[in-house]
Each structure stands twice: as C-alpha cells, then as structure tokens.
C-alpha cells in the first residue's frame, strides 16, 4: 500500500496583504490592479520606476509600482453605486 508523501514545500506564516502593499486590502485586488497596470505597460506606457536589469518583465515592473504606491486606483462600493442608480 502506498503511503502519502508529505509536501516538502516550506510554508511561512500568512502575511496580510495590507501590511505590504499600500491601499491594497485583498490579494484579489492586488492581482487585478497589477494585471491592469501590466497591460498598460505592454501597450506602451512608460514605467514609473527604473526597471531592475534582472527583472524587466512587465508583471514585475507593475507589481513593484503597486508596492511603491505609484499606481492610482479607485475602490468602488457596490452598495453606493446601487443607491446612486436608484435615485
């Protein structure tokens, strides 16, 4: 009978996204904001940071810009939007 293997991956303590990323309150929001910024970079937008020679991919640049707080975004509350539409 085969015995299940234990994972050899080391897992650290979970870290809240808000502690590392300014303005980001959820991991999903980080992914969305960085993806949209990466898409802008692919389409020819200039980077807001000096790219590291070892990490020149658009995703790395976008994540670093979000981490430094250089990417502006707005969080919409669906309840407020529904109230405005109802009025």
Describe this entry's structure for a reader.
There is one protein chain. The chain is an all-alpha fold. Helices cover about 45% and strands about 0% of the residues. It has helices spanning about 15-20, 25-40, 60-65, 80-85. About 15% of the residues are buried. The model has no long low-confidence stretch (mean pLDDT about 80).
Run of helices and strands:
HHHH
Helix/strand/pairing class, anyone?
A: mainly alpha
Instruction: Provide mean pLDDT, rounded.
Output: 79
Which strand-content bin applies to the residues? Answer: under 5%
Q: How many beta strands in the DSSP annotation?
A: 0
Number of distinct helices? 4
Inertia-based shape: extended
Low-confidence stretches: none
Short synopsis of the structure:
With about 90 residues, the protein is an all-alpha fold. The chain contains four helices and no strands.
């Amino acid at each position: 009978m085969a015995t299940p293997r234990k994972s050899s991956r080391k897992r650290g303590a979970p870290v809240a996204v808000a502690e590392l990323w300014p303005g980001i309150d959820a991991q999903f929001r980080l992914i969305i904001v960085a993806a949209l910024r990466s898409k802008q970079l692919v389409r020819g937008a200039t980077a807001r940071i000096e790219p590291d020679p070892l990490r020149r991919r658009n995703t790395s640049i976008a994540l670093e810009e979000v981490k430094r707080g250089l990417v502006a975004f707005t969080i919409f509350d669906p309840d407020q939007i529904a109230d405005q539409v109802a009025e």
